[in-house]
TrEMBL record:
Membrane-traversing stretches: 44-61, 73-98, 110-129, 135-156, 168-187, 199-220, 241-264, 270-292, 304-323, 329-355, 367-387, 393-413
Residues annotated as domain Major facilitator superfamily (MFS) profile: 43-417
Name of the protein: Predicted arabinose efflux permease, MFS family
Entry membrane topology: Multi-pass membrane protein
Single GO cellular component term: plasma membrane
InterPro entries documented for this protein: MFS (IPR011701), MFS_dom (IPR020846), MFS_trans_sf (IPR036259)
Record's keyword terms, sorted: Cell membrane, Membrane, Transmembrane, Transmembrane helix, Transport
Organism name: Rhodococcus koreensis
Length: 420
């Protein structure tokens, strides 16, 4: 499923899997100085876990604080959501430049630059004095973060053993779900005691440490560089119906989930629930369903096929949205878990399919997927505010259902999936 030229040699940590003694008849012996392919994959997996955790914690941490920030800055729900949308928009606009930069210097080197800049901004941005400055700072954060998810899947397909790419891709997406959960969950109780600015700054220090670990764990050297002109690759990808459908699926599904997470706190902190922000943040533990779903995505694809899993992902999101319309907190929680699981299963499958299908210009293809994914997050996360203002939670639910049904249509198109 995930094809890589077996004849390519990658200079990763200057390593080879095994070496032979002088006589060919003797058993291969693992080099004491050079890591095996399994060790290399474990190190790569750990690096991508750091990338997923740090990127998504930093990007979505303000989501759990939108009600507090909106009250403190005297802005509406839709305006407060710009702190999330600005970061995802900056990321969406930066992934193609990061991909082009990585073609020149190599994926690991580009990711190191992105991690270093993002780590510094994580500590500095929370102290910007005005709401407008915060929105601008969040946009710049997104630009820096664009070099991590934009290149993670590409590096994975270029470096990892082909048979393990599906599992490692699911593991990376699981890390993104844990990062999104941790960012939201950790800052809220700290903000209740110290305020939202110190809470975001403390989180930023922890994420800067994760970025430093990522820099150490990434493969040494420049890695593989592309010899295909970027503009030519982009044109080819934008004419590929299968890739365009996958881009659309990612944008629609993540847009629906971000709308849910942006405005659910406004619902639960108002009548008839009147839940405290810390209690609302605990409801976000439903995000763990995304972790489990993304880890299971590769296994499901191997048994059910891409199309079936994508259809299931869309169905889970739609069903969860309908459940959330009920007034019961238990059903709202179950609905939230279904929405989250659906998004991360769909994202893991769609992003992995993009990397596998684009055998040339893979960095540009995965960058285009990330442009679509985060543009959808930014756009529909903000549109959810309009839906909330006009119809409260029912308006948000209708928006999510429409987005999910559109994704389902793209998932069942014949050219969305590779031939059996």
């Amino acid at each position: 499923m995930y094809w890589i030229h077996r004849s390519c040699r990658f200079n990763v940590d200057d390593m080879s899997a095994t070496h032979f003694t002088e006589k060919d008849t003797r058993e291969p012996v693992a080099s004491p100085d050079l890591p095996t392919e399994a060790n290399r994959d474990r190190r790569l997996s750990a690096a991508l876990w750091c990338a997923g955790l740090a990127t998504f914690a930093l990007m979505y941490a303000p989501q759990g604080l939108l009600t507090q920030i909106g009250h403190d800055a005297a802005v509406s729900a839709a305006q407060a959501s710009l702190l999330v949308s600005a970061a995802t928009l900056g990321l969406a606009l930066s992934v193609l430049p990061w991909a082009r930069f990585s073609d020149r210097v190599g994926r690991p080197t580009a990711m190191r630059y992105a991690a270093a800049i993002a780590g510094l901004l994580a500590v500095a941005v929370p102290w910007l004095p005005t709401f407008e400055a915060l929105v601008a700072g969040r946009f710049v954060q997104g630009v820096a973060l664009g070099g991590l998810p934009a290149l993670a899947m590409t590096l994975l397909h270029e470096v990892a053993v082909p048979a393990r790419t599906a599992v490692l891709a699911g593991s990376y997406v699981a890390a993104t779900s844990l990062g999104g959960l941790g960012g939201r969950l950790l800052v809220v109780p700290v903000a209740d005691h110290l305020g939202w600015r110190p809470a975001l700054a403390i989180l930023g220090v922890g994420l800067a440490i994760l970025m430093a670990v990522l820099i150490v764990l990434l493969p040494a050297g420049q890695g593989q560089r592309s010899t295909v002109p970027s503009s030519g690759s982009l044109a080819v990808h934008l004419r590929d119906v299968r890739l365009l459908a996958l881009f659309g699926i990612g944008a629609l599904l993540v847009g629906g989930m971000v709308a849910v997470f942006n405005y659910l706190p406004f619902r639960l902190e108002a009548a008839p629930y009147h839940l405290a922000p810390t209690v609302v943040s605990l409801i976000l533990l439903a995000y763990l369903a995304g972790t489990a779903g993304s880890r299971a995505a590769g296994w499901l694809v191997g048994r059910l096929g891409h199309r079936t899993v994508l259809v299931l992902a869309c169905t889970f999101m739609a069903g969860g949205t309908v459940l959330s319309l009920d007034g019961s907190l238990i059903l709202i929680l179950l609905g939230l878990a279904a929405v989250t699981a659906g998004l991360f299963v769909g994202h893991a499958v769609a992003s992995g399919m993009v990397g596998a299908h684009a055998t040339t210009g893979r960095a540009q293809a995965t960058a285009l997927y990330n442009v679509s994914y985060y543009a959808g997050s930014s756009l529909f996360g903000w549109v959810g505010g309009i839906a909330w203002a006009s119809g409260h939670w029912a308006g948000v639910a209708v928006l999510v259902l429409v987005l999910t049904m559109l994704a389902l249509v793209l998932a069942v198109l014949p050219k969305t999936n590779p031939p059996r």
